[in-house]
Sequence to fold (159 residues):
Amino acid sequence: MSIETEPAARRETARNLAFINYALLFSAFFFAGAPALVAAIIAYIQRPSAAEPARGHFTFQIRMFWIAFVLALLAGICALGAVIHILVSLYGLADSMGWAGFDDMEVVIGQVAIDATLLGLVAAAVILAFFSGLWLIAASLFGAVRLASDQPMGQSRTP
Fold:
C-alpha cells in the first residue's frame, strides 16, 4: 500500500465503522440496548484517530448513546417508583387487615388502589422509554443518511 492510499483506506475504514455503529444503534431498540453499548465503545475508541467527517459522526453516536441511556434510566427509575408504590400500597393494605406475615397474606386485586401517582409513574416510564427508542431509531437514520452523502455532523455543507 502506498503512502497516498493509506489515508484514503483509513478514512474508508472509519466511515465503514461509523455505518456499522449506526446499524448497532438502530438495532439497540430491538435488543434491549446492548448493541448501543458496543457502538459507544467503538465510537470512543475510533474517534481520536478518525478523520472528518467520521470523527463528527463518532461524536454524534456517543451523544446519541448517552441521551438514550439517560432517557432509559429515567424510564427505569419511574418504573421502579411505580413498583415501590404498589408494594407500599400492598403493605399498607396488609397491615390494616391484621397481617401476620407473607404466608397468611391474600390480596384481591380489586382491593389495590390505582391512584394518580401510580398512573403518573407508569405513564412517565412508558413515555420516556418510547422517546428513548424513538431517539435511537430516528437519530441513527438521520446520521446514516448524512454519512452516506458524505456530510459531517453538526454543520451543513456549504454550496
